[in-house]
Amino acid sequence: MFENYARVSALGSLIAAQAKKPSLYFIGAMKAEGTDTRERFDSVWELIVEPTAKALGMNAKNALAVGSVQIMPGILQDLLSSHVVVADITGENTSVGYEIGIAHSRAKCVILMKQEGYKCGFDLKDINHVCYSLDSAGTRSAKKDLEEHIRHAERSKWMSMDNPAMYALAPATASLTPEISLMPTNALSLFSSVFPNQELMSLTDIAKPSAYYKSYKKD
Prior knowledge:
By secondary structure, this protein is α/β, with parallel strands linked by helices. The chain has helices spanning 2-20, 36-55, 71-81, 94-105, 136-155, 164-168, 178-181, 187-194, 203-206; strands at 23-28, 59-62, 84-88, 109-115, 129-132. A five-stranded parallel sheet has the order 2-1-3-4-5, sandwiched between helices.
């Protein structure tokens, strides 16, 4: 009896500890097993995203793990409940684009990835990306870059300035999440609260997409 109680207690403690960890959700083009697209998804997850998340003590999950009979509701539930979404946009997959749009509209922290040499659409090209290749040197570099992005997001309380929708919807998004509701709804004030040491941009600059990200985009 006492042995069973101890096991249940230990399990409860483990679940509670897991719940306190920040969570990461990975999305990308998948397709069927055996395709090049699926092999790329699996490789990016296994060689870059999952080990980076584990090294940072995060709970990590990808879109293949959805257990819902209705796949899309399950993916969106996991996506919206995570602290950070990592999205591989390689391949112009419409499902991935839809999921990024949902995440951006809900002011989620989204980190974009793309394979070296891939040219993304104009609406995402000014957003900072983690570029990767799947050779050993490329995966090491990508893991380091991804870790920097995640640490930056954590310091910013899981807010991302790489989100054009946050500016367009700043007054409206105040009621969407507890995190947002605690922050100013004006875009300039929001920028100042997250990056207090950065010089405020003018309204003219804010109209330029590239200005959203100049605070920490790499040269």
